[in-house]
């Protein structure tokens, strides 16, 4: 350490230049850091999407999802496998263990997909490499000149390709609009008249819609590429295709059917309402970021691309209107964090001036703050650690300057004792060398306190590991500044004689404290009863405090999952979506309301037209009525929607909704999964559970997540009758698939665009069960028989959505929690379910999922790792002081400091969650540091042959100012964060509350209890030590 301090003082010019260079590099690193509001908390996930138009949920499950699931069983690192099956869509979600690399997982899944046998028209694909937090930009395309068909074409063929060119964009999804098709609606009676089958039509169109290449033709000095042009260009070309010749007369496609521009059966409808817009049939784009990219940079490039499209590419009267931009959330949260950090830094500087009585000393100590942050940015850039509100907001400037304060206080103390002398480099070297080792060990202990965070897994790991790195890097930077820079600057600032500042109020406070310690040393055992009372109080408070996983992360928006009546038509869905938007927009705090009926074109979510996702944008909180909160607004919205029949709603937020869907497979805080192969039985149990949960205080938005059964028209093949007529079941299936459902039989290219050609019977032939039953089948002998003779046609109900997890069917009861902690709710819910819900425990299995799993896992990891970290701290203290009893004494402040944190959580109505637990972890390191400052100096005085009692009394007096100063700046550094209410403060607040109030109690304990315990212990061992006191190692000055 002496060599380090020698460099700091004798080579102070070199050190100044070095740190100036580090500051420049640090600023450059800051500009290159990935900055987001919240870290990407999703696990490595691969989603297999298979769209098969026309198939019901039962067939999708049986023919698509189950074969894929079986192929994926046993994948290395696979943690959870879920699937959702609905009309025309299968999504299989594969969630992998922590540490599995994204591309490796996708490669393994792709390898196994190759061997899966699926129907001929089922082509599984992997969703883009993004994450639930990857939706960074949403917009609507609006025009006062283009109709919906033209607007959709413009979006799909112009806007989306341009946005996909942006580096870092994984995909751009289309929602709403209509997908153009060339449709052929043939008349079955005219087909019978001309003896034409659907196979004839398909064959003729394929043969009359081709181009050909004929190699090259050489003529003289030139070579010509030979092209045969025969592609259909429009409906007129299509209609003039000859299907058959009857008695020498050609039968054209026009003769047996109607050709028109139509559209693919719509899967989703987009509605949007704000102060100037209101439409129920719009086109939306959703930009998804490639996982691991820098959102700030990607969004900047997306904004440029949007400006280019609006100003240069799109036709007049057509614009892209963004309504959900992650930049807004990033800027708002960074404003919140920077505001609290700035307030904390100002408070720290003011306290330093007040305590030190020197603006020069205060500013030199405060210089530690920006320099340590810039050093942290360098290390974050090198190790690829992103910056977010949680990692930056957890930095306590007061803790950062502790080492610099001790170093500066040592120099000032030297100046105060020799006010008229010119201080020499060697005299400052001796004094500052004495405290260098304690500064090093105390900082190391604080860093050690954060080690348990590296044991986290899954969501809590992704939330808090970047924070641990960031704080650790900042502390390392602060240590470098305190050891390498501050001694030289302090010597330069105070080497000449100067006026000594006397802080009168601090001197009076120190005198009063000294007299109290003198009296306490007469009867040191008086601290035992208060000590035991505090320990008992800490135990009681830890039992009574509510327990959760995480506080809600405010995103400044609301996301509502809305369930409409099952089997509802698309027109009715649009109507109900418009009514929903109108109702929500009436709240003056709302800036816009967006409704998504059904699902997007890519099938990212397996929703039917009975499901609506509703995004609600909020105006800045500063414009709201004083005292009104987002929770109050949600309560008002929920009460209003309860009065509207047909709407079942669940409230959440955009990002956390998608994250919870991945974690628990449900869009809610908590989910109870009911595993059973019998869907009817599962539905009955789920309804019972939902009724029970609704009666528990704090339960909100309780509902069965899967949609109820929806109407079906079933055509059940009669195998005996089919065999009697010499037919196959496939003949019936082909008639259903092609003639009724419609199938793509070719494509038409228009420039760079391509459109499907669809052929099926006209609407008049298939718009009722009776007419469907009259459709004709042709037997092997040429006889025509109606479909009703070989199949039963009936109206019934069938599954709307079938969900599976780890190869088992299940239903999910979702519930959000409001005003109740997770642990208390679960205890009451389990008791009521056991009492009131009856089911066969052999065939039905119930399991909680969601934040409960995360909480249990996080606390289990902390319970295993925190004792190890405490043991490591004890070893560090023992290695430094050489006496186990003193190391244990300094560790004893830990349970005592917990009392203040627990009391603060109870008083402020907060819960013990992962964020506050991280606050306790940080509190441990800081509390121990104060003990080190006290005990080390007492040890130092004893080496000078001081009496034990005199050493304790004198040492406490000498260390009163530095302990009070370091504790005060540490408390004030996080005080603004503990009371902040802006967007982004939710995770900071519990952490800061624990440190602020816990440190207040820990400081009192350090100043009073620790000296008394030290005196009693050392009095007992006085004269028994094998090692002379002079050989004890000093920890702190």
Automatic annotation (TrEMBL):
It is found in: Cell membrane. It is a multi-pass membrane protein. SUPFAM superfamilies: Multidrug efflux transporter AcrB pore domain, PN1, PN2, PC1 and PC2 subdomains, Multidrug efflux transporter AcrB TolC docking domain, DN and DC subdomains, Multidrug efflux transporter AcrB transmembrane domain. The chain crosses the membrane at residues 12-30, 337-356, 363-383, 389-408, 439-459, 471-494, 527-545, 859-880, 887-905, 917-941, 962-983, 995-1017. GO terms for cellular component: plasma membrane. GO terms for molecular function: monoatomic cation transmembrane transporter activity; xenobiotic transmembrane transporter activity. Keywords: Cell membrane, Membrane, Transmembrane, Transmembrane helix, Transport. The keyword Ribosomal protein does not apply. The keyword Membrane applies. PANTHER family: CATION EFFLUX SYSTEM PROTEIN, PTHR32063. Belongs to the resistance-nodulation-cell division (RND) (TC 2.A.6) family. NCBIfam families: 2A0601. This is CusA/CzcA family heavy metal efflux RND transporter. It comes from Parabacteroides distasonis.
């Amino acid at each position: 350490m002496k060599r380090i301090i020698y460099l700091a003082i004798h080579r102070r010019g070199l050190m100044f230049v070095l740190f100036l260079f580090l500051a420049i590099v640090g600023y450059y690193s800051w500009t290159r850091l990935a900055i987001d509001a919240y870290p990407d908390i999703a696990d490595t996930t691969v989603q297999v999407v298979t769209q098969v138009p026309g198939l019901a949920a039962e067939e999708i499950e049986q023919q698509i999802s189950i074969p894929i699931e079986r192929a994926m069983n046993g994948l290395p690192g696979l943690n959870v496998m879920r699937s959702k099956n609905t009309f025309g869509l299968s999504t299989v979600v594969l969630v992998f263990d922590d540490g599995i690399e994204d591309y490796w997982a996708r490669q393994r899944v792709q390898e196994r997909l190759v061997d899966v046998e699926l129907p001929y028209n089922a082509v599984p694909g992997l969703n883009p490499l993004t994450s639930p937090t990857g939706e960074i930009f949403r917009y609507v395309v609006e025009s006062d000149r283009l109709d919906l068909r033209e607007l959709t074409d413009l979006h799909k063929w112009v806007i989306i390709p341009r946005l996909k060119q942006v580096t870092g964009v994984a995909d751009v999804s289309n929602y709403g609009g209509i997908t153009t098709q060339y449709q052929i609606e043939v008349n079955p009676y005219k087909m019978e008249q001309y003896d034409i089958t659907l196979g004839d039509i398909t064959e003729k169109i394929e043969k009359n819609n081709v181009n050909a290449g004929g190699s090259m033709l050489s003529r003289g000095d030139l070579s010509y590429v030979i092209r045969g042009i025969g592609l259909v260009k429009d409906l007129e070309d299509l209609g003039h295709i000859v299907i058959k010749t009857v008695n020498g007369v050609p039968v054209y496609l026009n003769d047996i059917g109607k050709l028109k521009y139509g559209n693919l059966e719509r899967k989703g409808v987009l509605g949007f309402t704000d102060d100037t817009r209101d439409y129920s049939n719009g086109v939306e784009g959703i930009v998804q970021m490639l996982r691991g990219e820098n959102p700030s940079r990607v969004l900047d490039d997306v904004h440029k691309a949007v400006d280019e499209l609006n100003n240069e590419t799109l036709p007049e009267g057509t614009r892209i209107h963004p309504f959900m931009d992650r930049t807004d959330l990033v800027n708002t949260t960074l404003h919140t964090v920077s505001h609290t950090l700035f307030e904390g830094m100002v408070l720290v500087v003011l306290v330093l001036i007040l305590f030190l009585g020197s603006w020069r000393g205060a500013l030199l100590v405060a210089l530690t703050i920006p320099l340590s942050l810039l050093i942290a940015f360098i290390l974050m850039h090198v190790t690829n650690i992103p910056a977010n509100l949680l990692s930056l907001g957890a930095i306590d400037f007061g803790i950062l300057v502790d080492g610099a304060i001790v170093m500066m206080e040592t120099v000032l103390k030297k100046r105060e004792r020799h006010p008229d002398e010119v201080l020499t480099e060697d005299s400052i070297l001796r004094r500052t060398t004495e405290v260098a080792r304690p500064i090093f060990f105390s900082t190391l202990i604080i860093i050690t306190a954060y080690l348990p965070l590296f044991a986290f897994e899954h969501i809590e790991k992704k939330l808090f590991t970047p924070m641990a790195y960031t704080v650790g890097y900042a502390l390392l930077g602060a240590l470098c500044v305190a050891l390498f820079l501050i001694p030289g600057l302090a010597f330069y600032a105070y080497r000449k004689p100067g006026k000594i500042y006397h802080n009168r109020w601090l001197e009076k406070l120190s005198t009063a404290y000294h007299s109290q310690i003198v009296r306490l040393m007469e009867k040191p055992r008086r601290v035992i009863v208060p000590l035991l009372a505090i320990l008992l109080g800490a135990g009681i408070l830890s039992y009574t405090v509510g327990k959760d996983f995480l506080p809600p992360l405010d995103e400044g928006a609301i996301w509502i999952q809305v369930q409409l009546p099952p089997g509802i038509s698309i027109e009715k869905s649009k109507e109900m979506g418009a009514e929903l938007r109108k109702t929500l927009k009436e709240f003056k705090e709302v800036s816009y309301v967006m409704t998504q009926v059904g699902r997007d074109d890519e099938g990212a979510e397996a929703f039917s037209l009975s499901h609506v996702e509703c995004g609600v944008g909020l105006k800045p909180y500063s414009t709201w009525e004083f005292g009104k909160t987002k929770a109050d607004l949600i309560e008002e919205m929920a009460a209003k929607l309860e009065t509207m029949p047909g709407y079942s709603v669940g409230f959440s937020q955009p990002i956390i909704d998608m994250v919870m869907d991945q974690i628990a497979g449900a869009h809610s805080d908590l989910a109870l999964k009911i595993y059973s192969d019998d869907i009817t039985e599962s539905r009955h149990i789920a309804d019972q559970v939902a009724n029970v949960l609704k009666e528990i205080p704090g339960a909100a938005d309780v509902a069965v997540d899967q949609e109820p059964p929806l109407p079906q028209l079933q055509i059940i093949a009669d195998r005996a009758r089919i065999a009697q007529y010499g037919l196959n079941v496939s003949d019936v299936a082909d008639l259903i698939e092609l003639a009724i459902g419609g199938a793509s039989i070719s494509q038409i290219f228009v420039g760079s665009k391509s459109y499907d050609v669809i052929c099926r019977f006209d609407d008049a032939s298939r718009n009722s069960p009776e007419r469907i039953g009259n459709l004709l089948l042709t037997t092997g002998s040429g006889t025509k028989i109606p479909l009703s003779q070989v199949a039963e046609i009936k109206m019934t109900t069938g599954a709307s959505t079938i969900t599976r997890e780890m190869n088992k069917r299940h239903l999910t009861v979702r519930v959000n929690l409001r005003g109740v902690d997770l642990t208390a709710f679960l205890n009451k819910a389990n008791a009521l379910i056991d009492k009131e819900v009856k089911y066969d425990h052999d065939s039905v299995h119930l399991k909680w999922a969601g934040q409960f799993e995360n909480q249990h896992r996080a606390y289990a990891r902390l319970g295993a790792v925190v004792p190890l970290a405490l043991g490591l701290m004890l070893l560090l203290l023992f290695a430094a002081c050489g006496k186990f009893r003193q190391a244990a004494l300094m560790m004893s402040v830990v349970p005592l400091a917990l009392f203040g944190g627990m009391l603060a959580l109870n008083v402020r109505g907060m819960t013990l969650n992962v964020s506050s637990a991280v606050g306790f972890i940080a509190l441990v390191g800081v509390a121990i540091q104060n003990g080190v400052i006290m005990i080390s100096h007492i040890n130092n005085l004893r080496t000078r042959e001081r009496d034990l009692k005199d050493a304790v009394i004198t040492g406490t007096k000498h260390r009163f100012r530095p302990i009070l100063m370091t504790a005060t700046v540490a408390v004030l550094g996080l005080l603004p964060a503990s009371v902040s209410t802006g967007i982004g403060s939710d995770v900071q607040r519990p952490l800061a509350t624990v440190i602020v109030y816990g440190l207040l109690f820990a400081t009192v304990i350090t100043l009073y209890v620790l000296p008394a315990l030290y005196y009693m212990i050392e009095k007992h061992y006085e004269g028994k030590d094998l090692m002379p006191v002079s050989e004890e190692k000093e920890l702190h000055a």
